[in-house]
Every structure is written in structure tokens, then in C-alpha cells.
Amino acid sequence: MSVEVNNESGVEIDEGGVVSLAGYVLERMGINPLAELSILVVDEEAMSVLHEQWMGEPGPTDVLAFPMDELRPGPGAGARQEGDAPTDPALLGDVVLCPQVAAKQAAEAGHGTEAELELLCTHGILHLLGYDHAEPEEHKEMFSLQGELLESWREVRTQR
């Protein structure tokens, strides 16, 4: 996987950890190893502009996803089944994160900013892969998968 992080936020983040997590999520989702993903980390002002321009909503948000291709998950709601071929290589798109908003949400949730950024990165990647949470069934599926991916990522990471 090719994962590029561009941090324009002025906030130091664990870029290596974000790249590793993104690669893990894409691999677990059965995405072709030649796929490319861009992660942009911006400040609240830049995120506000993007949020208003693309979503029509005022103020900054935590994460935005901008898919490049019409890539959709494969069998089993995105999880590659034994024997399935990976999806074709593609430029997946951009995930945009705002660490300042993530820090506020992390404090409210009672965990660290890094954990919140991991959650948001995973969430954004799932959006790029066609997942949504507008309807109750979609919400349940996406957030369940997000939780499973994060839990397994954290287990793998602590074993290193």
C-alpha cells in the first residue's frame, strides 16, 4: 500500500502510526497492495473551509473523506473472503483529519488524541471504501467494522 501523510495542521502527530494503521485497515479490507491513499492533516480553519465547501455545514469537523474512484467493498461487506482476489489497484482518495477537533472529542470521550485520530482515520478509510452511516443498518455495520478493525490493530501493535 502506498499511504502518504501530509501534515499541515501545525500539530505534531504520529505520522508513522497513521501510515501503519491505514495500511493495516486497507490490507484487512482486501484492498490491492498497489492501492494509494492520501491522508491530509489540517488545522481548524482549513477544515472549516472544506466542511463548508463540500458538506455545506459551518465550522470544523473531525474527518472528511474524498473518494477518487467508485471503489466499493467486495464480498462480506468489504472483508475479503478466503480465495477472493484483491480489488484492483486504485487511487482511493483523501482522508482529511483535524487533530484540534480530535483532541476536543478525545477529552470528551476520556481517551487520548492519538486514539481518537486512529478512530477517525479508520472511519475515513471506511467511507472511501463505500461505507456510510446515514441509515441505522448502515450505522451498525460501519461502526461494528470500525471497532473490530481498531481492536485488532491495537492488539497487533501491542505485540510488536
TrEMBL record:
The keyword rRNA processing applies. Its cofactor is Zn(2+). Zn(2+) binds at H123, H127, H133. Its main location: cytoplasm. SUPFAM superfamilies: Metalloproteases ('zincins'), catalytic domain. Keywords: Cytoplasm, Endonuclease, Hydrolase, Metal-binding, Nuclease, Ribosome biogenesis, rRNA processing, Zinc. It is an enzyme of class 3 (hydrolase). Signal peptide: none annotated. It is found in: Cytoplasm. Pfam families: YbeY. InterPro entries: MetalPrtase_cat_dom_sf_prd (IPR023091), YbeY (IPR002036), YbeY_CS (IPR020549). Belongs to the endoribonuclease YbeY family. Single strand-specific metallo-endoribonuclease involved in late-stage 70S ribosome quality control and in maturation of the 3' terminus of the 16S rRNA. NCBIfam families: rRNA maturation RNase YbeY. This is Endoribonuclease YbeY. It comes from Streptosporangium longisporum.
